[in-house]
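Section handout 9: paired folding examples.
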Amino acid sequence: MTRFSVIESVRHLIGEYRSFIKSSYRLADPRLREQFEEHVNSADVLVKGPYVTLSRDFAPGQPLARILAAGLGHPGLARLHWIFGESALFTHQEASLRAVESGRNIVVKTGTGSGKTESFLLPAFSAILRMKEQGVQGTKAILLYPMNALANDQLGRLRDLIRDSGTGITFALYTGDSETVARTT
């Protein structure tokens, strides 16, 4: 039985990638082709890594149901379809909700895949639900994204979060590519 080796697997992958590059750019001039293939064979910059991270998981907080039962956040947050479901929030998500609910501003600085979006949506939606309850009309929040691609990515996420929640939250997407504003409920 052959043992799996990450290093050997990466070496194999790099070799396959080098072959792919050489076959994709088959130069007609034999001297140029030889120089090109020599460069591809000796170049260290074609592939970086592999990298292994030893970072720990993000610290777990409490489940949203428990946080809401303690009186923090609008109870309607429980009707939204959060990606964490019944699982515990991360402590930075819980901390952001606590901070905003107490009237403080927040900056969320954490790693990829740590739920930064939920860190600002939880307090924003809590405030929106309160304002709706009080009869406040009109726009209650504006989410600004630095790139259209990110805004479009978040569109699907917001639809999944809000759709069939019964919260009455609506939103619209506008980018520089938009000819009109499309309302979504």
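Moving on to protein 2 of 2.
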Amino acid sequence: MAEAFVRHKWADVMEPQSAGTHPAAIVQPETIACMKEKGIAADGQFPKPLRALNWKNVDLLVNMSGSPVFGLIPKYKGGSLMWNVKDPIGQSPKVYREVRDQIEALLDRLAQTLQKQPAPPKQGSEKTP
């Protein structure tokens, strides 16, 4: 859900990469339906393990699981946020909507905060004197 929201609403502020400690085999049909209610498609997304990401390119880790993850990514040196978001898998459509709306609100606040900060220089870019 988070990756789909960022791609739809905040692609000019963030570049999302979603992964999990115990990724599901598929994006749940309930997730797809829940996001479609907001007019957002999750096309091309699929569950990935943490090890699938290139952590050198990650500036901010947003941990929504509440579980410790740094032992799984020991070389990560960026910032982090901890958001306690319920996993809706196996729950009712109402729970999916609550989780969706919580994630959207958290991401809206994060994007607004990031918009106020100066952009860091792009990797590989050099300033000329």
